[in-house]
Write a structure and sequence with these properties.
Residues 178-282 form the Fe2OG dioxygenase domain. InterPro entries: IPNS-like_FE2OG_OXY (IPR044861), IPNS-like_sf (IPR027443), Iron_ascorbate_oxido_reductase (IPR050231), Oxoglu/Fe-dep_dioxygenase_dom (IPR005123). By secondary structure, the chain is α+β, with helices and mostly antiparallel strands. Helices cover 28% and strands 23% of the residues. It has one domain (20-343): Sandwich (Jelly Rolls). 44% of the residues are buried.
Length: 348
């Protein structure tokens, strides 16, 4: 039974204090920006990426155009949108509302259209509006890929990884991957609790770029005097900034030296919410140690985690949903109609 939501709309407090990394400066490995980047990924797993430089203007303009086109498309009837259901391990195509577990025991309250990096480059399986505005959509996707790969390279450098262990080796441009842009639409809060938000999870790729002008995103933030506790905090949307979070594959490939941040999305009380996300994912043939320490192929990890996303809430493996972080002393996480409480906290 889904939990019933009641009471006034939540105030957006507390707000997570996240580092801001200036992209134009981290490109040059500016020491201050590199320190801000490395601190963020090793303590919270989230940071702001400032894209207000002159060179990023084109990317933000393409984002605005693509967002407008997709907002119109989401208003189409469900039978029109359902002609383009997801394929390729759910990395390309349309996912309707209610196909995954939501935040309060019911089903989810969001729909998404994904454009896979290989698919859009090949102009394969595109919805008509994307085909019509192909230049904006394809250019924006390439720009997201460039930004993500530059961040990955700087992270690899910051961790002291040499040529043989560089993270670039597992993200080759000449090999297929499940990297994709996701255009998301969240319906307003359903007070019955049947279709609510996006359940707590970690992302199963490498790095995620999130673009949103609206509140709704929450991160499980380190709290307490030494950061030994965790609590849900709101991530403030900022103009000309992407919100970046570390995902599972980067966590495992670096020997757990970074934080794959647990996060969720709550619906707004009286309006629709829209966001655009880019998922950088490794080459399909990448091997990595999983949560149990066993070597696995990233495709196996994707399959298991995607199947878990789509399972009913009462059958989900919550530990797997958040990347196996239970096994690292994260404690138990209980979801209630009032929210998610972090219990049995232990030091990381």
């Amino acid at each position: 039974m889904a939990g019933v939501l009641s009471g006034p709309a939540p105030a957006f407090k507390p707000v997570a204090k996240l580092n801001t990394v200036v992209f134009s400066k981290v490109l040059d490995r500016d020491p201050e920006q590199m320190d801000s980047l490395m601190t963020a990924i090793q303590t919270v797993g989230f940071f702001y990426l400032d894209l207000s430089d002159k060179y990023s203007e084109g990317m933000l303009k393409n984002l605005e155009q693509c967002s407008s086109v997709m907002k119109d498309w989401f208003s189409e009837p469900i039978d029109v949108k359902s002609e383009y259901k997801t394929v390729s391990m759910a990395s390309h195509g349309y996912k309707p509302i209610g196909s995954q577990a939501g935040t309060h025991g019911g089903r989810d309250g969001w729909e998404v259209l994904k454009t896979g990096t290989l698919e859009i480059a090949s102009r394969w399986g595109l919805i008509p509006p994307v085909e019509k505005h192909y230049e904006a959509f394809s250019t924006f996707q390439r720009q997201c890929d460039y930004v993500s790969r530059m961040l990955l390279d700087r992270i690899s450098h910051g961790l002291g990884l040499g040529a043989e262990s560089s993270l670039n080796r597992t993200h080759r441009g000449d090999c297929p991957s499940k990297s994709a842009v996701a255009y998301l639409h969240y319906i307003p809060m359903d007070h019955s609790g049947e279709n609510v938000g996006h359940n707590m999870h970690t992302d199963y790729g490498t790095l995620t770029l999130v673009f949103t002008p609206q509140w709704g995103l929450q991160v499980l933030y380190p709290a307490g005097p030494r950061g030994e506790d965790r609590e849900w905090q709101w991530v403030e949307p900022r103009p000309n900034c992407a919100i970046v979070n570390v995902a599972d594959v980067l966590y495992f490939l670096t020997g757990r030296r970074v934080i794959s941040a647990v996060h969720r999305v709550l619906p707004l009380p009286d309006k629709d919410r829209y966001s655009v996300t880019y998922f950088l994912r490794p080459s399909d043939d990448t091997l990595m140690p999983d949560a149990e320490g066993n070597t696995t192929n990233v495709m196996e990890w994707y399959t298991k985690k995607n199947n878990n996303y789509e399972a009913p809430a009462h059958t989900q493996d919550k530990s797997f949903l958040i990347g196996g972080l239970y096994k690292d002393g994260f404690g138990g996480i209980e979801e209630t109609a009032a929210g998610i409480n972090v219990m049995n906290r232990t030091k990381r």
